[in-house]
């Protein structure tokens, strides 16, 4: 048996290893003659180009190269053969057997003989078609997003409402109108950051603190509608804005940011202020003659020689004059509460006694209407630091409405509960109820429900507005529940202090 030299065995083993490595490599590999003939092809290259190895060996690299990329490749081949470089790398396109394009990342090295003669090129081709197509799709998507962004910006800039979409600490999208408001609030420049204090004020003229700014409230996840703020340093040129916010969440519910809309309502606010001023002025003018009318009616009724039928007419006149006086009083109260002229005169009040007295005052009307009126208050004193007369207005209005809107045979129940957290006053009735669609407007000035209007129940739609204003001034809250035909329950929650 002939024993091969160790060097020969190692050489043969190395060649086998190299061939196995090339054959099973995921990178297409071929040996290319200096004239361009393809001398070999591994499995990866055959799969990449859709040819068998025999078919590839019958081709030149010029034939499998995309015509538009051939010149660049030939120039590099020439430079390599001329000894100007020993290798090169090139992104180029190849032609698949079925005609479609294959994108490749080509690495080429020239192998020379001992005398420097070029023997062949070793070419390795990585298929980057998917990466190129992904990059093209990404670029197309980016172009489409940019196009949509331009359309969106054009739409936003065409509306007269300020719009801002922002993430934590800064705006993502704003429109022209919002920028106008920003420049008014920050004449020195706002550098694109949300939540910076500026010339922003409450309707009463108080400068807003950082936590009160709409952008900071929205950033915290709060949603609100028609929050009124004023913007601008000069009171004479300030603009009133109604701000609404909607939160943006991920599908998992995580908070991403918010969309804020700023609507300039300066003209509306001024018109409402003028209307309130007019109503207050007219109410003041009506109060004096009404007092005179009621006084003279009382004198006429006290005369001994007034016929019975005239007394009846005087009673009608007095009832309507009293009703008009109550309406004037309500208008004045609303005007005072609206412009902030009312200051609560707080003192320690037994709210339980106040509720009982209010119920006693309305009881004759309840009895006349055929209603059952029940009162439930704690046996011990319920002391709280409140404005007694104003709180009495709240209870009077709620009880008066309950009696007015409940049909004969029904019931009205008033209940007062006290806890360390505060007071809860509940007025429940079995009356006409409330429409859920109207609950949001029920406490608005001059609003009357459709059912109340259709039944011709008297009222100006001011009582509940007064209730909410007084409760708000005390730092409390008022709410209502109910359904049409099933009665309603008004709940007032007040802090003790």
Quick tags:
single chain; 497 residues; alpha+beta; Beta-Lactamase; six-stranded antiparallel beta sheet; five-stranded mixed beta sheet; 14 helices; 17 strands; 43% helix
Q: Based on the coordinates given, report the CATH architecture of the largest domain.
A: 2-Layer Sandwich
Gap from first CA to last CA: 113 Å
* Main β-sheet, spatial strand arrangement: 6-5-10-9-8-7
Give the integer mean of the pLDDT values: 84
Beta-strand proportion: 15-25%
Number of helices: 14
Summarize the amount of helix as a percent range: 40-55%
Number of strands: 17
Full CATH superfamily name of the largest domain = Histidine kinase-like ATPase, C-terminal domain
Structural class: alpha+beta
Pfam family, one: PAS_4
InterPro entries: HATPase_C_sf, HATPase_dom, His_kinase_dom, HisK_dim/P_dom, HisK_dim/P_sf, PAC, PAS, PAS-assoc_C
Domain Histidine kinase: 281-497
Main location: membrane
Provide structural commentary.
By secondary structure, this protein is an alpha+beta fold. The protein folds into 4 domains: 116 residues, Beta-Lactamase (2-Layer Sandwich); 106 residues, 2-Layer Sandwich (Beta-Lactamase); 69 residues; 148 residues, 2-Layer Sandwich (Heat Shock Protein 90). 43% of the residues lie in helices and 24% in strands. The protein is built from 14 helices and 17 strands. The protein has a 6-stranded antiparallel beta sheet, sandwiched between helices. A hairpin with a 5-residue loop joins strand 16 and strand 17. Helix 9 runs antiparallel to helix 10 and helix 10 crosses helix 14. The longest helix is centred in the middle third of the chain and has 36 residues. The chain is rod-shaped, with a radius of gyration of 43 Å. It starts with 5 loop residues before the first helix and ends with a strand.
């Amino acid at each position: 048996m002939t024993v091969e030299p160790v060097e020969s065995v190692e050489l043969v083993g190395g060649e086998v290893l190299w061939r196995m490595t090339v054959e099973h490599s995921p990178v297409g590999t071929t040996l290319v003659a200096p004239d361009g003939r393809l001398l070999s092809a591994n499995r990866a290259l055959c799969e990449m180009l859709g040819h068998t190895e025999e078919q590839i060996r019958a081709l030149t690299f010029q034939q499998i190269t995309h015509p538009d990329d051939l010149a660049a490749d030939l120039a590099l081949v020439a430079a390599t053969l001329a000894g100007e470089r020993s290798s090169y790398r090139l992104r180029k396109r190849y032609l698949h057997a079925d005609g479609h394009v294959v994108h490749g990342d080509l690495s080429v090295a020239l192998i020379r003989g001992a005398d420097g003669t070029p023997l062949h090129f070793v070419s390795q081709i990585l298929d980057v078609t998917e990466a190129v197509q992904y990059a093209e799709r990404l670029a197309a998507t980016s172009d489409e997003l940019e196009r949509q962004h331009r359309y969106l910006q054009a739409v936003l800039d065409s509306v007269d409402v300020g719009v801002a979409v922002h993430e934590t600490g800064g705006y993502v999208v704003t429109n022209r109108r919002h920028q106008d408001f920003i420049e008014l609030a920050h004449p020195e420049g706002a550098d694109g950051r949300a939540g910076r204090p500026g010339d922003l004020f409450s309707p009463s003229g108080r400068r807003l603190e950082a936590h009160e700014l709409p952008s900071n409230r929205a950033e915290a996840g709060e949603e609100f509608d028609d929050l009124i703020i004023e913007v601008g340093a000069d009171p004479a040129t300030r603009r009133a804005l109604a701000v609404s916010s909607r939160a943006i969440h991920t599908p998992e519910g995580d908070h991403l940011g918010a969309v804020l809309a700023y609507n300039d309502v300066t003209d509306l606010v001024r018109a409402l202020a003028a209307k309130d001023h007019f109503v207050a002025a007219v109410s003041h003018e009506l109060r004096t003659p009404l007092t005179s009318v009621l006084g003279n009616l009382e004198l006429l009724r006290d005369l001994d020689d007034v016929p019975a039928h005239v007394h009846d007419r005087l009673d009608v006149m007095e009832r309507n004059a009293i009703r008009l006086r109550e309406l004037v009083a309500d208008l004045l109260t609303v005007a005072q509460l609206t412009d902030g002229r009312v200051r609560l005169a707080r003192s320690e009040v037994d709210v339980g006694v106040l509720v009982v007295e209010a119920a006693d005052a309305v009881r004759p009307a309840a009895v006349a209407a055929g209603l059952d009126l029940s009162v439930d208050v704690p046996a011990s004193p319920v002391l709280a630091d409140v404005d007694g007369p104003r709180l009495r207005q709240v209870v009077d209005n709620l009880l008066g409405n309950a009696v007015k809107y409940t049909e004969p045979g029904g019931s009205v129940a008033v209940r007062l509960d006290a806890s360390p957290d505060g007071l809860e006053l509940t007025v429940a009735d079995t009356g006409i109820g409330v429409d859920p669609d109207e609950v949001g407007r029920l406490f608005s000035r001059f609003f009357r429900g459709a059912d109340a209007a259709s039944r011709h129940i008297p009222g100006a739609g001011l009582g509940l507005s007064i209730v909410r204003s007084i409760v708000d001034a005390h730092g409390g809250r008022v709410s209502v529940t109910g359904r049409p035909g099933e009665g309603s329950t008004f709940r007032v929650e007040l802090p003790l202090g």
